[in-house]
């Protein structure tokens, strides 16, 4: 195997078309060989398939990862993104340096676990084209890649190597024997990312070179037999490490108590697919509650106690109050569909509540003191619109919202409820979002941890990743914040409709006005399987 790297790639083509359509969740599944073959036929690359020794030379194949495909000004064809397993589409409007044309690098796929591209059997130089479009510090994104089981790079930090918005390539020469080039990605921090895949056939050594080693191969035959005793002599060496192997056993057993404490968390759905950013908290002697036994959705929990709240895995959880959770320390909710099927009810308190005190929320978290982990949940209302999405009044809590969708339109007015997709008015200490979608008739996110109290201490910057909030014709501001929090990191955040985003553009970095290319929470709902976690 040979590996190479380059901070400059001079053959990147100029983009002539741009993708503007929204891709359904199903389109993100791995393409079949037939689908990829069809794409290549359209691109004029039919000789990639079924090539034999007598066929014409196999052309190079270029895949526009995360993009719709294009034909460069020099005639180079980049096919639309295909062959991937998992991941999401991303794009940046930033200029990319280190390349003559950064068009291909402005679209990218992140979070994928693999690519499988049909090619003729043979030897290829595989090049991954990348840039770091989001992070502006090292150590934030670290990942590895293999091609046909051969390491292309291990624990690569693109920013550490070339910086922000700079092209970087990594290559490896591999041999394909089963008619498909297989790439695998594994993230250590954040998500793996790639903007382009180049597959170039390699002219293998000529026949005379292939035959010259033959005598060398046969001559060692006697040498192979003579070392037989040498092979047996190391046997004791092989056995000597046995005690070394067993010695760590006590070390492995020592953490057993730690491993058993979060055992209930381990019973959550087995990880598969694209990893999320934040894992559930470690739980101490958690109490498990099957929410199907709570028909009104109002759950009162004991202070200082950890909980796993289970939604039905094969049915919709219908109730009158959504998820109204009061108290508890660490709380984990993973997967399920919540149908707020009841009518409006007396809400108690909270900003934006109309004078008559009636509200209809998807979820309300009140007075937790640990980490709230809400993942893979879909909220709907079969009896009509919702007035609020997720409300938070937990000044001492950390909140993690991942792969969550609100699929019923939120309705409200300035005089009544403000129909926030996500609103915090007292805390949390930090808000971490990775995968969240909602449609609102008034307001999207209202982020003010000290709106009703100064009891909360914001301990770290807030993060919004892979978020889409759509405002309808009656909507007002989609994103609204009050300092603190001092910092909000945004990544792949899309807003549309309404009056746009309140505050200056510097308050909302990396926010795109327009529809997202994919549904960031398509997997939420009954039957949800957690994809696992990068951190």
From TrEMBL:
SUPFAM superfamilies: Galactose-binding domain-like (SSF49785), Pectin lyase-like (SSF51126). Keywords: Carbohydrate metabolism, Endoplasmic reticulum, Glycoprotein, Membrane, Signal, Transmembrane, Transmembrane helix. InterPro entries: Galactose-bd-like_sf, Malectin_dom, MLEC, Pectin_lyase_fold/virulence. It is found in: Endoplasmic reticulum membrane. It is a single-pass type I membrane protein. Residues 61-187 form the Malectin domain. Residues 18-28 have a biased composition (Low complexity). Residues 1-28, 208-269 are annotated as: Disordered. Its main location: endoplasmic reticulum. Belongs to the malectin family. This is Malectin domain-containing carbohydrate-binding protein.
């Amino acid at each position: 195997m040979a590996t190479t790297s380059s901070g400059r790639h001079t053959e990147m083509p100029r983009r002539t078309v741009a993708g503007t359509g929204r891709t359904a969740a199903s389109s993100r599944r791995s393409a079949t060989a037939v689908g990829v073959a069809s794409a290549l036929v359209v691109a004029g690359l039919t000789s990639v398939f079924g090539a034999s020794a007598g066929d014409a030379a196999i052309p190079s194949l270029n895949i526009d990862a995360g993009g719709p495909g294009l034909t460069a000004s020099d005639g180079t064809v980049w096919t639309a993104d295909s062959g991937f397993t998992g991941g999401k589409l991303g794009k940046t409007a930033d200029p990319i340096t280190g390349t003559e044309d950064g068009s291909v690098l402005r679209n990218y796929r992140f979070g994928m676990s693999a690519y499988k591209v049909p090619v003729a059997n043979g030897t290829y130089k595989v090049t991954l084209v990348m840039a770091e479009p989001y992070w502006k510090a090292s150590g934030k994104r670290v990942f590895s890649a293999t091609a046909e089981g051969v390491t292309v790079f291990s624990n690569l930090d693109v920013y550490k190597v070339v910086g922000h918005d700079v092209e970087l390539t990594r290559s490896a020469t591999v041999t394909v024997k089963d008619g498909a080039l297989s790439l695998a990605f594994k993230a250590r921090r954040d998500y793996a990312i790639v903007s382009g895949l180049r597959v170039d056939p390699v002219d293998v050594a000529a026949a005379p070179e292939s035959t010259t080693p033959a005598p060398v191969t046969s001559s060692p035959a006697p040498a192979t037999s003579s070392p037989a005793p040498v092979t047996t002599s190391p046997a004791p060496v092989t056995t000597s490490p046995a005690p070394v192997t067993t010695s760590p056993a006590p070390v492995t057993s020592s953490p057993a108590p730690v491993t058993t404490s979060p055992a209930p968390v381990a019973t959550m759905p087995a990880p598969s697919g694209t990893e999320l950013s934040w894992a559930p908290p470690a739980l101490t002697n958690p109490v498990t509650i099957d929410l199907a036994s709570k028909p009104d959705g109002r759950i009162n929990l004991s202070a200082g106690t950890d909980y796993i709240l289970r939604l039905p895995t094969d049915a919709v959880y219908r109730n009158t109050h959504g998820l109204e959770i009061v108290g508890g320390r660490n709380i984990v909710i993973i997967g399920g569909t919540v149908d707020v099927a009841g009518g409006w009810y007396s809400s108690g308190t909270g900003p934006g509540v109309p004078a008559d005190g009636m509200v209809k929320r998807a979820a309300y978290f009140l007075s937790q003191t640990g980490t709230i982990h809400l993942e893979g949940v879909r909220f709907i209302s079969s009896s009509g619109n919702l007035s609020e999405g997720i409300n938070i009044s937990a000044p001492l809590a950390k909140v993690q919202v991942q792969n969550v969708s609100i699929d019923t339109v939120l309705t409200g007015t300035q005089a009544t409820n403000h129909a926030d997709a996500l609103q915090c008015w007292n805390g949390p200490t930090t808000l971490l979002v990775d995968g969240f979608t909602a449609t609102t008739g008034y307001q999207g996110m209202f982020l003010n941890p000290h709106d009703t109290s100064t009891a909360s201490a914001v301990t770290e910057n807030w993060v919004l990743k892979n978020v889409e909030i759509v405002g309808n014709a009656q909507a007002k501001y989609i994103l609204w914040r009050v300092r603190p929090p001092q910092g909000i990191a945004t990544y792949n955040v899309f807003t549309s409709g309404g009056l746009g985003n309140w505050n200056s553009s510097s308050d909302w970095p990396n926010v795109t006005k327009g529809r997202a290319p994919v549904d960031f929470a398509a997997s939420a709902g009954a039957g949800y399987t957690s994809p696992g976690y990068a951190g």
